[in-house]
Amino acid sequence: MMFVGSLCGGWMRKMAIVNSNSHNCALRHSLRLYQSSNDVVVSKKNAAALKKKAFINRMKEKGFVDYRRVLVRGGRGGLGCFSFRREPFTRKKYDDGADGGNGGDLIFQADESLSSLDHITSTLVGISGNNGGSNLRLGANAKSKIVKVPLGTIIQSEEGEMLADLSEEGAQFQAALGGAGGRGNTGGLKITRCVAFDDERKQGTPGTERRYLLELKTLADVGLVGMPNAGKSTFASAVSNAHPKIAAYPFTTLNPHLGVIDFADYWRMRIADIPGILPQAHQNRGLGHKFLRHIERNSVMLFIIDASGSDGSCTPCDAFDILYSELKLYKEELVRRPIVVGASKMDKEGANEGVDALRNHLEHSGKKIEVMPLCAESGEGVVELTHRLREIVEAEKEKLKPTTISRKQEDESFASELFQ
User: Fold this and answer.
1) Per the confidence metrics, is the pTM higher than 0.85?
2) What is the distance between the alpha carbons of residues 107 and 143, in angstroms, rounded to a whole number?
3) How confident is the chain (420 residues) per 10-residue block, as mean pLDDT?
4) Which of 32, 1, 121 is nearest to 70 (CA)?
5) Closest Cα to residue 137, out of 191, 181, 103?
């Protein structure tokens, strides 16, 4: 019995050791699973974060769109209802099908917060009206669909005729009308009601369909014009809330950037950073027409010229002549607008001599254009230039104000004409 007991005791001790070992193995296995699951969770989180970051970068690098060809269609009218109502204890049936709702219009509306047409798809369709129901339940009319576009959007017909210029905040253009709702078997003239389940009058009519050309011309108070790598983007980022890409190579800016300068008295001025202009840009060299058309809607031109001539391609005088001639050859009206020259990069060697040479050149050519030195990186001359631009912009807006004539002046002028 003692031998059997010792055998049982040894067997139980071995079983306890095996159980403990198996328990430790299970613990180690579960710990590995926990760690691996944590690694999977972490990797999933990292993948989601990387995917989100890539999406944001892709959206930032999304191309600037200033031209769209769109097909616009109004909302379709809702179906009419063909149904009958029966009263108890009678064989007679009564018509109770109602008309469908009208389709919604499609409207373009100017919005100051937008700066590109990249969100506009090739086909825009209005909202359809609701279907009519039995028991005289009329279908609801659909609401108008409003498609927002940037300020300065010009809407043209397919033949190129200008139909609207959305240059003011909230300005609207009705691009397509919604269709009429289908007829039920009640309401209105009896001759217009549907008389069968498959009657054509039950169908709602489709909305109007038209093709438009949307062209964006940047609308700003001041347009920054200059050669590539002249310092336009640096100046725009220094004085406004615009954040264009800045680098030490030409054509860093490939799309126009809009910025707003806020003054202490809550007066605001919009500036547009236009990409660099090359010689023969009026002949569409270097996407010249794509860039030049954004200058057309700016009331004041600010020529940003590298006073030091650090790139070695041309002197400040030659740079001014190229910019002036390109604007004149593209549209002569542009050079009749107020022009201010901002001599940039004054912190570099030879900048003062370049400014003097530029002033002498303008004086000899008979152009009364002001030259103001500045260095956007250090802030030298930036405040003076922005205040000078404000004075010119305010003067230009004052000229555009309509002259008001009082009723008394009208009566006096009419009386003087009557008794002459």
Assistant:
1) no
2) 11
3) 43 45 49 43 58 53 72 93 85 86 94 85 93 89 93 88 89 93 83 80 90 85 83 81 56 68 86 76 57 79 85 80 86 87 86 89 87 86 89 84 50 56
4) 121
5) 181
